[in-house]
Amino acid sequence: MGKSVIAVEGTQDVELAAALLKAEGFAKVAMYAELDADLQRLVTTEFPFQGDLYKRVPNPMFLRRGADWVAVRAAGGGAHRLSLVIEQVMLQQQLFSDTIMGLGVLCDADDQEPVDRLRSLLSELDSRRTISGFSLPYPDNPGEIAAGKPRFGVYVLPDNASFGTLDDLLIECGDVVYGGLLAGARTFVDRVDLAPLTDKDKVLFLKPAGRKKATVACAANILKPGMSIAVSIDQNRWLNDQTRNLPRVAALANFLRSLCGIA
Q1: What's the Rg (C-alpha) of the chain?
Q2: ∠ at Cα 252 (27, 166), nearest 5°?
Q3: First CA to last CA across the chain, in angstroms?
Q4: Which residues does residue 28 pair with via DSSP β-bridges, in sequence order?
Q5: At what angle do helices 11-22 and 166-177 cross, to 10 degrees?
């Protein structure tokens, strides 16, 4: 029986990991009573969370295949927030040793080289690596998994070598299954008139990944009008038999299999 925890930045990353795990026979588990007892300890029951009525309770998505479990938790961006999730699991491992066999992080390389993103995260973890009687192995490079209990690896999207984000993978997938839709979305984004917009309006669009994110959002809103990209990843064909064989998507799927000990 294997249990793994993956910390990611946002809900889109959660659904990306879930889509790849579903292809391995995993299914989402929604009911608390159905969770493995060890994983129930990762559930936050506090509400309002941190006293904020509008803050989302940060519970993982749980997926199961027989006796194998994976919890995928959206932590938010930045090394600090991702490290808090890792610390929570480390504390659980101290109290209940060998509970979690795989521990990983998925993050973007939108404003840092992938190796720098890894170093930033490990540096943040070093400040939290003071839990008595516990040692977390560190990988040498993005995309590698360090052997230990638990195994630990950090995958920096899109491919551990290039600047980019999850959206780069979605665009590659979209070009395969939604070619005309992606072409139309690109045309719209390229021709949009920015002149009436304020600097505040444009701040996210003008970031390095802004146009790609807008392109994916346009396509997703045709497929699922008024819904999020995460919903579209879950319910549409971005990750299908064809696109899972794309080299960069297959590399991520292989990382998840190795991290989670999936045969």
Answers
A1: 19
A2: 90
A3: 12
A4: 63
A5: 50
d(C-alpha 52, C-alpha 8), whole Å:
22
Q: Give the helix, strand, coil percentages of the chain, each rounded to 5.
A: 45, 15, 40
d(CA 89, CA 146): 16
Q: What is the pTM of this model?
A: 0.94
In the numeric block, which tokens belong to residue 159? 């491919």
Distances from the Cα of 102 to the Cα of 27, 131, 138, 191, angstroms: 18, 18, 13, 45
Report how far residue 172's alpha carbon sits from residue 150's, in angstroms, rounded to the nearest whole number: 32
Please state, in angstroms and rounded to a whole number, the distance separating the CA atoms of residues 37 and 136: 23
C-alpha to C-alpha distance for 194 and 186, rounded to whole angstroms:
15
The tens digit of pLDDT for each residue in 17-70 reads 999 999 999 999 999 999 998 899 889 888 888 899 998 888 999 999 999 999
Q: Identify the residue whose tokens are 């979209």.
A: 174
164-182 tens-digit pLDDT: 999 999 999 999 999 999 9
Give the number of C-alpha atoms closer than 13 A to the C-alpha of residue 84, restricted to the C-beta side: 10
Distance CA(196)–CA(194), nearest Å, equals: 6
Q: What are phi and psi of 212, to 5 degrees?
A: -65, -40
Picking from 151, 157, 82, the residue whose alpha carbon sits closest to that of residue 122 is 82
Residues in CB range of 149: below 8 A, 6 or more apart: 93, 97, 98, 101
Question: In this predicted structure, which of 135-139, 217-221, 231-235, 252-256 has the lowest mean pLDDT?
Answer: 135-139
Distance between CA 110 and CA 203 in Å, rounded? 15
